[in-house]
Design brief:
This protein is of the alpha/beta class and 229 residues long. The chain has 7 helices and 10 strands. The strands form 2 sheets. The chain has a 6-stranded mixed β-sheet with strand order 6-7-8-3-9-10, sandwiched between helices.
């Protein structure tokens, strides 16, 4: 069977700008970003620290709003939505993976993953759970707590938690930033498998060109602007 996806982009930004204020000083983080991401793409956004890539990710995830411009995700214009509506949208449509794993230390691996399904409100889905933990190679770690796992294993658990509710979009902010080269490659391969096997749309922020090489498309940023796509 051939999978058919919408021809409409899943993510669209138009002249996106973000200005922070430090006292009386205006600090521009984004200076008119235009970006489109199609459903099923794996896009890496690369650039040096301070170029605006994390700010872009936070806006695309509905964690903060732009100063001006437009951001539309899965047909929803974030610039016309209130905080409560963005929170509901984020809960059902977007998964996040961060450089810091943010696992709950008192819960087992199984409960760290399953809690995301309960927070979403749809209850525990054993079939989805089994598919995700099998694909990420963490079935033998389900009864462990985070302190007993390596950094790479913790990041795989964090990825499982992010995708267990089948979000349309996975936003990954420096997912290999705290890992050695071997574990970095394992995590990147897992993200690639998620993209290919589950058709998971992924937007990954990284300063590492080797990490970006696993993506379908590389977007380069500098000084709050996209300089190459």
């Amino acid at each position: 069977m051939i999978e058919v996806f919408s021809l409409e982009p899943l993510i669209v930004t138009e002249n996106l700008k973000k200005v922070y204020r430090v006292g009386k000083v205006a600090v521009p983080a984004l200076r008119g970003v235009n970006l489109t991401v199609q459903e099923g793409e794996f896009v890496a956004v690369v650039g040096p620290s301070g170029c605006g890539k994390s700010t872009l990710l936070h806006i695309l995830g509905g964690l903060t709003g732009p100063t001006s411009g437009r951001v539309c995700v899965d047909g929803n214009d974030f610039t016309t939505m209130g905080d409560a509506d963005r929170t509901r949208f984020r809960r059902h449509k977007i998964g996040f993976v961060f450089q810091r794993f943010n696992l709950l230390p008192t819960l087992t691996v199984k409960n760290n993953i399953a809690i995301a399904q309960h927070i979403q409100g749809n209850g525990f889905n054993p079939h989805r759970f089994d598919a995700v933990v099998e694909m990420l190679g963490i079935r033998d770690k389900l009864n462990y707590k985070p302190y007993a796992l390596s950094g790479g294993e913790q990041q795989r658990v964090a990825i499982a938690r992010a995708v267990i509710c089948e979000p349309k979009i996975l936003l990954a902010d420096e997912p290999t930033g705290n890992l050695d080269s071997e574990n970095s490659q394992i995590v990147l391969n897992m993200l690639r498998t998620l993209n290919r096997s589950f058709r998971q749309t992924i937007l990954m922020i990284t300063h590492n060109l080797d990490a970006a090489a696993v993506s379908d498309r590389v977007v380069r940023m500098r000084d709050g602007q996209i300089i190459l796509d």
